[in-house]
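User: When convenient, might I ask for sequence and structure tokens for a protein?

AI:
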Amino acid sequence: MAEPRAFISFDYDHDDTQRDLFVGQGKNQRTPFNFEDWSSKGKLPQAEWEKLVEEKISKCNMVIVLVGRDMTSATGVAKEIAMAIRNDVPVFGVYVDGANASSALPYNLPRGRIINWKWDAIAAAIDQMMGEGKNA
């Protein structure tokens, strides 16, 4: 079976380094999870961004939201979660950059769907997502 396709949603203005580290970890042979990163790699004009991102999300098995400390200013993340919901793509979050259970969350991401950045927990969440939404 091919690797699960994951759209990585993150705060472009604050957590791009965390995104690079997370995606890099997914490529490490010792990591107990694998995925193809289908996230957007650069800034685009708004209308073009929304069309491209929704198309990518609709082709993915899941959206992984990197939940950083500045989520309240990340309006694009909330839009990406809404796109995932519209396309029946399961979503979960991973706390990054010092964020924790008391950090602000993007709209539509339930706190119970966010985990700490631990390899085994991420692997289990990826397996869970492959049985939810359009993957079921």
Notes: The longest helix spans residues 46-58.
